[in-house]
Design brief:
The complex is a heterotrimer of chains A (441), B (131) and C (269).
Chain A lengths: L4 E7 L11 E6 L5 E5 L3 H8 L12 E4 L2 E4 L2 H14 L3 E5 L5 H14 L2 E4 L6 H10 L6 H7 L2 E5 L3 H4 L3 H6 L15 E6 L4 H4 L3 E4 L5 H12 L8 E2 L2 E2 H12 L3 E6 L1 H4 L4 H15 L4 E6 L6 H12 L5 E2 L6 E2 L6 H6 L5 E5 L3 H4 L2 H9 L2 E4 L12 E3 L10 E4 L5 E4 L12 H16 L2
Parallel strand pairs in A: 6-7, 6-17, 8-9, 8-13, 9-10, 13-14, 17-18, 18-19
Antiparallel strand pairs in A: 1-2, 2-3, 4-5, 4-19, 7-15, 11-12, 15-16, 20-21
Helix pairs in contact in A: 2-17, 3-13, 3-17, 4-12, 9-10, 9-12
Chain B lengths: L1 E10 L2 H8 L5 H7 L1 E4 L1 H7 L6 E6 L2 E9 L8 E5 L23 E7 L8 H10 L1
Parallel strand pairs in B: 1-5, 2-4
Antiparallel strand pairs in B: 1-6, 3-4, 3-6
Helix pairs in contact in B: 1-2
Chain C lengths: L1 E7 L7 E2 L5 H4 L4 H5 L2 E4 L2 E4 H4 E5 L7 E6 L5 E2 L9 E4 L15 E4 L15 E4 L22 E8 L18 E7 L8 E7 L13 E6 L11 E10 L5 E10 L9 E7 L1
Parallel strand pairs in C: 1-6, 2-7, 6-8, 8-9, 9-10, 10-11, 11-12, 12-13, 13-14, 14-17
Antiparallel strand pairs in C: 1-5, 2-3, 3-4, 15-16, 16-17
The chains are: A alpha/beta (441), B alpha/beta (131), C mainly beta (269).
Chain lengths: 441, 131, 269
């Protein structure tokens, strides 16, 4: 029998921060298209299929001429992009979380050349976690340790059944580990959320918290842990007896872990929610081993923070306008800058602020020239002035990505990119060359 | 036919994740993310069929989406719109000095608009380009 | 006092970073020399003369008063690290006004943006309008913020004002904030700071306060559950010697830090 497909094994899935590394992809030998994905979750599988050529994918560089995106040569598109960036007085480079680390470091290089503002998607998701960790530190561990040891698992403001579909079965819930030989039965799962989420529905204990009152609830847990008798009967909709019971449960754990998500970082009090959660975890270490892990969304947003931090000293929201990196989320973060209309050109790499920023910020983003390095037609790239078609990192080019617990894993190339697409790294390198030429360096 | 004093939450759903990877301009994306999930009892007060377009209004904007009943209830007083262009018409861009907008826990109200048109992602975001 | 007048002559599309505008930098300089001091606009290094009309004269730091006119709502870092003299700003002003100052006085006749008086080490900052977030706060990652000096805000202060304030009894340093009303997380991580609020405050006042005094003459919306009622008092004695008369309910907290805490929150009865 003649082989019709080739199989690539041990592929990392470039979708969420769980970064599953056991996927198997079948590629049709004749067409070089993905025909089968095994082991992946629904979303990851779809991402591999969506890399096949379709009406949603760009295959050639495009420039907006007379209101229409028209196909041009790479040379012309790169020249136009470099022109926009060099002419801008306060350019913003944003995105970087869905690409590999080498492209991210090219982003830093370009930002420094242009004295630009450099930001990644953490500024709209786990930025508050980074702020809180900067304030009070954090006790972290790898997911492997959790798999083998954790007997008490809290998901706070996080819904992994939907957002990290294989997290529960690979690391935190159903998986059997060295000391947790009976898997799910050896673990006690607690979910704190305003909605009875699908994760909550399979948990041992569900705590319904009122929206935006997480901070008060964690504070009272900490006070009870200190042995204080509180004056109140209930906090954030949770009766005080439940809080006391929860504290006893947490104290009696062998190895506890707190996973937290957008429910804490994107509601009122932002980083203060995380800060008090970190302090709760720290204080629980008086009784047992307790750690926490932010549930990162994009597969390599943790990598973006690492790369930016080892290059500039700061993880996100970095301003190079004075020639050296400065950092202050709220002053130099993308949404704030756009709301104040302080940006006059943007380069978006592997991200979709058009979909994910509040409407007011998107309006101002579109007012000024916009360059998108993006494989797909999205509400950002469809309205960009220059579209540079990219190969999808982790599917069509190699690279390194950091899992949510900051473990670096190697991404694999399973197929060729369609059309004239280039990798994010190569596109950024070409822009850097061009910008250097225009700046006379 | 309308509800006040609701709290809007937004976030990831697996359908939304699958749809956005499958093409953000697709109709599938509208069905996955251009929806508003109600608590079952709240939905009865609206007195309409599942799938009827509703207009969700906050201090920061308004958008027309399809109504549906939440699988993750009961959560009386809370409505849920998956993250994406529709939700982002409504969220609070003010980050309170920390850089991250408030995507969750925003006061909202809802009106049934039987003939309302739910725009797809490109039409919806395209409206921001033209103003 | 010798006066120097600065009038802004351009509309600003981007923020202007003017950390060179301090009495320390102006003292003893001619007008021409002052005009050559650097300011930063977008990605460019420019000079004060490019943006301001400058007039007047200056001698020594303590005797120099800078008066600023025109729309300064997008001018950042005025009075950064100043040690003496005075600045009068007759406009709304941008971020970081008077950050790290250790002496002298700044008066803002208008509103101030975020980070006004951040990391204040001494001196006085007065704002007649509202102030943004992080008034008198510690910058990101610092565990000791405002250490001395006084901030007076007539209107409202934003969230997380007086973050990580730190007093010192041996050095007799008592950082103090007076404000009209306040947003959430007033005096969070307070380590001895004094805060007096004429009106109401939002949620989570005094969160994680280790010691210090917060006096609220209005209401507190959603008092933290980790605060406990101690009793009622007829007057409050502040560490800087001031006495505030009136009936207050005394709360101790924040009990997340310690079971027995020296932190106090007084709310009008």
């Amino acid at each position: 029998m003649v082989e019709k497909v080739r199989t690539v094994t041990d592929v990392c899935c470039p979708f969420c921060g769980t970064l599953c590394d056991d996927l198997e992809i079948d590629i049709d030998l004749k067409t070089d298209q993905v025909v089968e994905v095994r082991n992946g979750c629904q979303i990851g599988t779809k991402k591999f299929y969506a890399s096949n050529p379709s009406e949603h994918r760009f295959e050639k560089p495009l420039i907006k001429k007379n209101g229409e995106l028209t196909e041009v040569s790479w040379e012309e598109a790169i020249d136009k992009a470099a022109d926009i960036l060099v002419k801008a007085q306060r350019p913003l480079l944003y995105g970087f979380s869905s690409t590999e680390c080498e492209a991210q470091s090219r982003g830093v290089e370009l930002a420094e050349l242009l004295n630009a503002i450099l930001d990644n998607t953490a500024s709209v998701c786990h930025g508050p976690s980074l702020l809180a960790i900067q304030d009070v530190g954090a006790s972290l561990a790898t997911l492997g340790e959790i798999k083998n040891r954790a007997d008490t698992v809290i998901f706070w403001g996080s819904n992994p059944v939907h957002a990290h579909p294989r997290h529960l079965s690979r690391y935190s819930d159903f998986i059997r580990g060295y000391f947790r030989t009976d898997g799910r039965n050896d673990r006690y799962i607690i979910v704190v959320d305003p909605r009875y989420t699908h994760t909550a529905q399979i948990a041992d204990k569900y705590i319904k918290v009122k929206p935006n009152e997480d901070y008060e609830l964690i504070q009272s847990i900490r006070a009870v842990l200190r042995g204080t008798d509180l004056d109140v009967k209930e906090v954030a909709g949770v009766p005080i007896e439940d809080i006391k019971e929860l504290v006893e449960r947490l104290k009696s754990a062998n190895f506890g872990v707190l996973f937290f998500g957008m429910g804490l970082t994107q509601s009122l009090a932002h980083h203060r929610n995380i800060e008090t959660a970190i302090r709760l975890v720290t204080e629980l270490n008086d009784y047992n081993k307790f750690i926490l892990i932010p549930m990162r969304g994009h597969y390599n947003v943790a990598g973006a923070n690492q790369v930016f931090a080892w290059n500039t000293g700061y993880a996100y929201s970095i301003d190079f306008s004075r020639g050296y990196p400065r950092y202050n989320p709220g002053e130099f973060s993308s949404v704030q800058l756009l709301m104040r209309d302080e940006v006059d050109a943007s380069l978006v790499v592997a991200s979709d602020p058009g979909s994910n920023f509040p409407a007011g910020a998107v309006k101002n983003l579109f007012k000024h020239p916009l360059i998108a390095i993006e494989p797909h037609k999205t509400p950002t790239s469809a309205f960009a002035d220059v579209v540079l078609p990219a190969a999808i990192a982790g599917i069509e080019c190699e690279g390194t990505a950091y899992r949510m617990d900051k473990v670096p894993l190697r991404l694999r190339k399973v197929k060729e990119a369609p059309g004239e697409s280039l990798s994010d790294k190569e596109i950024l390198e070409r822009i850097i060359e061009k910008v250097k030429g225009k700046l006379g360096e | 036919m309308s509800l006040d004093d609701l709290i809007l939450l937004t976030g990831r759903t697996i359908n939304q994740g699958v749809a956005l990877e499958g093409g953000k301009a697709s109709r599938e994306n509208v069905r996955a993310a251009g929806i508003c999930a109600f608590d079952a009892d709240d939905f009865k007060k609206l007195d309409c069929l599942v799938g009827t377009p509703v207009k969700v209004i906050t201090d920061f904007g308004e958008v027309v989406v399809y109504s549906t009943i939440s699988e993750e209830g009961p959560h009386p007083g809370i409505i849920f719109i998956p993250m994406g262009p529709w939700a982002n018409q409504l969220v609070n861009p003010n980050s309170q000095g920390c850089g991250t907008p408030i995507y969750k826990g925003i006061n909202a109200k809802v009106e049934v608009v039987k003939n309302g048109k739910v725009l797809n992602a490109l039409e919806l975001i395209g409206n921001l380009k033209n103003v | 006092m010798d006066e120097i007048k600065l009038k802004i002559k351009k509309n600003l599309k981007f923020p202007l970073e003017a950390d060179s505008i301090t009495p320390d930098n102006f003292a003893g300089k001619t007008i021409a020399a002052i005009k050559k001091l650097p300011v930063y606009y977008a990605t460019k290094k420019m000079t004060i003369g490019d943006f301001f009309d400058v007039s007047g004269k200056s001698t020594e730091v303590g005797n120099t008063k800078i008066i600023m006119e025109g729309d300064l709502s997008n001018v950042k870092r005025i009075g950064e690290k100043m040690t003496g003299g005075e600045i009068e700003i007759n406009s709304d002003v941008g971020m970081h006004v008077g950050n790290n100052m250790s002496g002298g006085k700044i008066v803002v006749n208008g509103n101030a943006d975020d980070w006004a008086g951040a990391m204040l080490q001494g001196g006085e900052l007065e704002i007649t309008g509202d102030a943004g977030h992080y008034v008198g706060s510690a910058y990101r990652g610092f565990w000791q913020g405002m250490k001395d000096g006084v901030i007076k805000v007539k209107g409202r202060v934003g969230i997380e004002s007086m973050l990580w304030a730190k007093s010192s009894k041996p050095a007799n340093k008592w950082p103090t904030l007076y404000c009209g009303s306040a947003d959430a997380f007033l005096g969070i991580h307070n380590h001895g700071g004094t805060i007096v609020v004429e009106g109401d405050v939002d949620r989570c006042t005094g969160a994680d306060q280790a010691w210090g005094n917060i006096v609220v003459k209005g209401k507190v919306s959603r008092l933290l559950p980790s605060y406990k009622k101690v009793g009622e008092v007829k007057e409050v004695q502040l560490p800087n010697g001031e006495v505030i008369k009136g009936k207050f309910i005394e709360y101790s907290g924040d009990h997340t830090i310690k079971k027995e805490t020296a932190g106090r929150l007084y709310v009008a009865a």
